[in-house]
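Researcher: Sequence of Protein FAM180A-like follows. Predict its structure.
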Amino acid sequence: MQWRALLVFAYLSASIHEAGSQHYGKALFPSASRIKRGTPALMNPTFQHSVDDANLLFEILLAGMEIRGGGRSLLIPDEELASLSCVEKLEVLCEDVLPKTLPDVRRLAAELERRRTPLSRADFERTVLTLVFSAQTAAQVADRHQREMWTDAALRLFRAVRKDLEL
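Model: Prediction complete. Tokens:
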């Protein structure tokens, strides 16, 4: 599948992204600070905190992880990977933090295009996961116009990730 190439790029990008970069200004993912699950550890969640976490995310993506809009947003076909306790943070990210509607994804892409400073590690991770979601959605949408819109959004996110790596 074509989106697997995006996943490989996303993994490689996340692995080499500078961990200490900071961002200023308006929050790109405002819902990250409004998690309603009540667990302090899940406030403003991030999945990757080490190279091992990045490798695990790559393994989960290659296992066929799907991010869906609405309901249970995260599907990990590999039961062993899905049962890991650290996957809870990834579920929270995918279900509660990532934008899932085309207008929200396009808003994120537009904000990223205007940025002149590197993304924080958390925003970079969320942008890459939103790119994965957008690519998967584009591949599944039957309506040609909607597919083109989702593809455009995914390409804009891809360009933003690439630009961030160059900053």
